[in-house]
Amino acid sequence: MNILCIGDVTGSIGCRFLREHLSALKKEKHIDLVIVNGENSADGNGITPDSAEFLFSSGADVITTGNHCFQRREVYDLMDREEYLLRPANHSPKTPGHGFCIVDKGRIQIAVINLMGTLYLDALENPFDRMDLILKEDLPKIRILDFHAETTSEKRAMGFYLDGRISAMFGTHTHVQTSDIQILPNGTGYITDLGMTGPVNSVIGFEKEPVIHKFTTDLPVRVGFAEGPCLMEGAVFSIDEKTGKTVSCEAIRIK
Length: 255
What we know:
The protein is α/β, with parallel strands linked by helices. The chain has helices at 11-29, 49-58, 76-81, 127-134, 152-162, 208-217, and strands at 2-6, 8-9, 33-37, 62-64, 100-104, 109-116, 142-148, 168-172, 182-183, 189-191, 196-199, 230-239, 246-254. α1 (11-29) packs parallel to α2.
């Protein structure tokens, strides 16, 4: 089974670029399942029902999110209704939505899990503890985790903590693709960060000038998503359906 995971989609410009290229990539790589991080897919930040529907209609099977998942109140009802739109599982159970889903592909089922790190992000439940609880559920052999976290150390630690217990883990949030895609010693596919889908000439998807102004003056600024040429970054994990282990993996970058 080939699973394509796509890094944080930024704004409508990133959504459009994904739609333009996803179908051909799925055919080229013989993709069976597409997971897209869409927490920044709405212009202005967050995710809305419109941006979620755009991603689903463009070919996403599951949408994961992160620290901006509740930025737009209009998506709350959709999070409760749509089982394949996830928010981090270590949020309070009182929040809208759910943190993992089971995708039924007929011959095989896949669990997709969404967690958020706690270093330099919101003070949520410990993601390691939450993952242990999720793994006590009756999950299928193929288990994929989007770990939306700030630091490479927390992501690397989670990867090794789960090695052999899940099929693959990819990191999101920092919008810069890392060069460490690999299969960990016990068969879990891993990459610290998928990267992003959005404008190339930007600061993690945002306009350069306001961000530079903020860093050089310490003054507040209003920042929007950049325009111009785009890229789509992610990874493909090929997973043995009998063992649930990753047998090959590769990073993807399309411009």
